[in-house]
Amino acid sequence: MGSGNILWSLAKNYFTVGLIGLTISDRYASVVPVRGTSMSPTFNPQTSTFWGSSIDDCVLVEKFCLEKYKFSHGDVVVFSSPSNHKERLIKRIIGLPGDWIGTPHSHDVVKVPEGHCWVEGDNSLSSMDSISFGPDLLESVYAALHISWFVLM
Amino acid sequence: MGLRNLKQWKSFAIEALNQSFLVAKFLCFLHVTNTYLCTVALTYGPSMLPTLNLTGDLVLAEKISPRIGKVGPGDVVLVRSPVNPRRVVTKRVIGIEGDSVTYVVDPKNSDRSDTIVVPKGHIWIEGDNIYDSNDSRKFGAVPYGLLQAKVFWRVLPPKDFGPLGQRAK
């Protein structure tokens, strides 16, 4: 009976910590690993593994920007891919609503529609971004987090 | 004398800390419920007549179905608007990715209808009142990630209390 009580209070403590941690990670800040090299050399600068597997960069992301959806040019954001909502991508905002963007491959100039933004990876060689799927949805940025500073781990 | 005051202040501070911790726990619980389980929404506008009233309905919407991918044609859903990310709109899902959707482009002016295949990872939403609804016919298919919740119950007005059923489509 005593051990049951201890287990119960332990469970309550874990539950409380989990709740608070989840709320903080949803509303304020959280840590995400960066996979892939589409943002190199900003994140994950090594492409080849010389000493074995290279460790992914981990970044601290803040979520205060999601209140007002106010982003600026040059912000690095995390968002869910429009073609697969489970996949999260990390890119840099190049164009905001109303901007005109020149696409490198075709000689077209595209105007970013209202509610959308144009994102591109820093590593233009290997990056699936607005060049491939059109102006990205600004609010697909539901997990959009403004990266304030990153920590190499 | 000074020591007793200090003791009182200390116990007062500890009590205040405990109470605020309790309040913080409750707020976190509210946030988790609102984000992951069930939320309340006030809908208004003519785009979902006759299903939803013009002057506003209070509905309950659950957040589990969009997360596990159980949203299909015929469901009334809350969706973040693709043209204004600060607004959440209520519409009905007409087609999911891969579906071929036929819709009337502009019912007030002409009878012309168009057919479109919903792209991968997107859904097609329309209001029940197609004469006065700003939906996928105007802004195109919406990415699945913008789905916020699936409406399942109506609370207000009291005469309409009950489940929000599926319309035969």
What does this entry look like structurally?
- The complex is a heterodimer of chains A (153) and B (169).
- Chain A is of the alpha+beta class and 153 residues long.
- Chain A has one domain (29-151): Umud Fragment, subunit A (Ribbon).
- Chain A contains two helices and nine strands; from the N terminus they run αβββββββαββ.
- Chain A has helices spanning 2-27, 130-133; strands spanning 29-33, 58-62, 76-81, 84-95, 100-102, 109-111, 116-120, 136-137, 146-151.
- In chain A, the strands form three sheets. Chain A has a four-stranded antiparallel beta sheet with strand order 3-4-7-8. Chain A has a three-stranded antiparallel beta sheet with strand order 1-2-9. A two-stranded antiparallel ribbon of chain A has the order 5-6.
- Chain B is α+β, with helices and mostly antiparallel strands.
- Helices cover 27% and strands 32% of the residues of chain B.
- Chain B has three helices and ten strands, in the order H-E-E-H-E-E-E-E-E-H-E-E-E.
- In chain B, the strands form two sheets. In chain B, strands 1, 2, 3, 4, 7, 8, 9 and 10 form an eight-stranded antiparallel beta sheet that branches.
- In chain B, a hairpin with a 5-residue loop joins strand 9 and strand 10 (162-163).
- Chain B is elongated, with a radius of gyration of 23 Å.
- The relative contact order of chain B is 0.18.
- The interface between A and B is medium-sized, with 25 and 23 residues.
Structural class of chain A: alpha+beta
> What gyration radius of chain B follows from the Cα positions, in whole Å?
23 Å
CATH architecture of chain A: Ribbon
The main sheet of chain A comes to:
4 strands, antiparallel
Q: What would the principal axes of the Cα set say about the shape of chain A? A: elongated
Name the helix and strand elements of chain A from N-terminus to C-terminus, one letter apiece. HEEEEEEEHEE
Give the DSSP E fraction of chain A (strand runs of 2 or more residues): 25-35%
| Molecular shape of chain B | elongated
Range of helix content of chain B? 25-40%
Global Rg of chain A: 19 Å
Count of runs of 4 or more consecutive helical residues of chain B: 3
Tell me the CATH topology of chain B.
Umud Fragment, subunit A
Give the SSE string of chain B: HEEHEEEEEHEEE
Strand content of chain B: 25-35%
Low-confidence stretches of chain B: none
- The total beta strand count of chain B reads 10
| CATH-level-4 superfamily name of chain B | Umud Fragment, subunit A
Helix content of chain A: 10-25%
Main location (chain B): mitochondrion
GO molecular function (chain B): serine-type endopeptidase activity
Protein name (chain B): Peptidase S26 domain-containing protein
Family (chain B): Belongs to the peptidase S26 family. IMP1 subfamily.
